[in-house]
């Protein structure tokens, strides 16, 4: 236990450093930053939804800069083919044979911008990579290097020329982070910071905090965090309630339960704690569940949102003491 606490102290310090590096450029998105860090520590992918101009792409870039790993950005468009993402077989005249040319998905952190712009065939090409950490072309599997983390973004208000993500693909994301407009004081700080930097977002000024070896060590420590049986039951009760709610047409699967468990461990470790509390569970339950449930037509007509239904379920679920 003592050795674990030493590791958690170092992890907490690293998390604070990442927050500080991102805050050099991004103001007012602390929750998004923390959830991105938690997802990386929990080895899960993230979907970020928000209107244009709320720093979705910039935050993803800055997070990648704080890790000493490779970064690629893929702009999804309606004419993007699966081979444009995964790679393709190319003829090598010197060897008179075909060889595999890797696509942009072969990186440690991949930012997929406007994921709902690409057709279903290209979206589906991501499924094996996100779940299995490998790409199969012509029957040959190509393993992704460690770590592998996908951050996808989408615009919630402009649906012309977009392709809705299927539930099977949404389930691959451990979090769906909704990014709204900043508050008045936050926007004042954004303007002031932009003015101070003379309109330049110097991404190169961001210092690397973690390397792959550090990340692997911290992930191992997080997995060994103590979770009491009452906390596990609390998680199961919340997820089980989504399957029996009169407000929901589709509830969450056991994968959601595992997502809540792993990310609540990460949140606990980020705060220097070697055990999970109900507060850690409640901190992650909404971003884990909001894209895994579907409202009934009646609740949709009433103008309800998934977040509201999740809040109702959590409030009705007895908190373990």
What is the compact description of this entry?
The chain is α/β, with parallel strands linked by helices and about 325 residues long. Helices cover about 45% and strands about 15% of the residues.
SSE arrangement, N to C: HHEHEHEEEHEEEHEHHHEHHEHH
Mean pLDDT: 89
Number of domains: 2
Q: What is the CATH architecture assignment of the largest domain? A: 3-Layer(aba) Sandwich
The CATH topology of the largest domain turns out to be Rossmann fold
Q: Tell me the β content.
A: 15-25%
Strand order of the largest sheet: 2-5-8-1-9
Give the overall shape, derived from the CA principal axes: globular
Task: Characterize the main sheet.
Answer: 5 strands, parallel
The top-level CATH class of the largest domain is Alpha Beta
- At the fourth CATH level, what is the homologous superfamily of the largest domain? P-loop containing nucleotide triphosphate hydrolases
Number of contiguous helices = 13
Helix content: 40-55%
In terms of structural class, how would the helical and strand content be classed?
alpha/beta
How many beta-strand elements?
11
- Low-pLDDT stretches are 1-6
Report on this structure.
46% of the residues lie in helices and 17% in strands. The chain is of the alpha/beta class and 321 residues long. It has 2 domains: 184 residues, 3-Layer(aba) Sandwich (Rossmann fold); 97 residues, Helicase, Ruva Protein, domain 3, CATH 1.10.8.80. Strand 3 and strand 4 form a beta hairpin. Helix 10 crosses helix 11. The longest helix has 21 residues. The N terminus is likely disordered.
